Amino acid sequence: MRYCRFQSPKGPAYGMIESMGGRDVITRLVTMPEDASSFGVSTTGDHLTALPLNEVKLLAPTVPSKIIGVGRNYRDHAKELGNEAPSELLIFLKPSSTIIAPGEAIVKPRLSQRVDYEGELGVVIGRKCRNVREDEDVKTYVRGYTCVNDVTARDLQKSDAQWTRAKGFDTFCPVGPLLSDEIDGGNVTVETHVNGESRQRGTTKDFIFSLDAIIRFISRVMTLQPGDLITTGTPAGVGPLSAGDMVEVTIPGIGTLRNPVQDEA
């Protein structure tokens, strides 16, 4: 199924997306992950008059308690930044205040002279997990997949001993447009365009660490809650953004996440 989070007359709501008459529409509400032990279809049967997807304001499709990033999960990306491919999974945290919706502006902070795009596959957790066993099916903990732009202040990343500042500015985590469980997260293409020009193109088949390995590893460090977001690494081709740019991250089966770029006022 495909899901979205959108601005309804009663406030932010989650909806199930279906195709009707050749167009995508929101047909019913689903439970909010922050209000439930699992993220799934509402048992209250809250059906809607079909809302055309292109007529609603889309919000970020999840409201995570935390965002866990995976660093250098493509060998070519590690190489382009002058780093060795990691022998053990490398993770970092982004604050939830970095999240913005499709169409909202990425703001380049005055503190940084170089802000880069990083198109990635995002994984949204569907139910609480901790210490996932080797014999467990990791996919049972996944609600779905989405597009993420792990925006990074590259100069600050290089100067700081850790990545919190470089990854943590407000607006540095665009997410969306949808959430889908209909794709194989281990075999999808991630492509980034800036002003219509292709800058990144990679496949999750080339991950150094698989999705199963990522979720098991993180669950041994911290409890993952419904709605939590994992960003799984970016392919080679990262580069700087300038005010006025339009950056797009596209994953087939999910769609295109579009965000303009502006300087900090």
Describe the structure.
This protein is mostly beta strands and 265 residues long. It folds into 2 domains: 2-59, Roll (SH3 type barrels); 67-263, Fumarylacetoacetate hydrolase, domain 2 (Alpha-Beta Complex), CATH 3.90.850.10. It is 9% helix and 41% strand. It is built from 4 helices and 20 strands. The chain has helices at residues 75-80, 154-159, 164-167, 211-219; strands spanning 2-8, 11-20, 23-29, 47-52, 58-59, 67-71, 90-94, 99-100, 106-108, 115-117, 119-125, 142-149, 152-153, 173-180, 189-194, 197-203, 229-231, 239-240, 246-251, 255-263. It is globular and about 50 Å long.
In brief, what are we looking at here?
The protein is mainly β and 265 residues long. Helix content is 9%, strand content 41%.
